[in-house]
């Protein structure tokens, strides 16, 4: 599950929630906060060159402009 907030980029504020399965995203950064919650399974996340293995019920909060990826 991913929560995504789009803030200060366009005129309209945006908060989005969506579920992902078997999904990966290469290194990137943005001007929005990102919250990743694991419903089931595992997700490998790299945030500012530190690697984490998230499991069921784990949560990762990514600040604005932090370089991150997940697999």
Describe the overall structure:
- With 71 residues, this protein is mostly beta strands.
- The chain has strands at residues 2-6, 14-18, 25-28, 34-37, 42-47, 50-55, 59-62, 68-70.
From the structure above, extract its key features.
globular, single chain, four-stranded antiparallel beta sheet, 8 strands, 52% strand, mainly beta, 71 residues
Number of strands: 8
Radius of gyration: 12 Å
Low-confidence stretches are: none
- The residue-averaged pLDDT reads 81
Topology:
Elements: E1 2-6, E2 14-18, E3 25-28, E4 34-37, E5 42-47, E6 50-55, E7 59-62, E8 68-70
Quick summary of this structure?
The protein has 71 residues and is mostly beta strands.
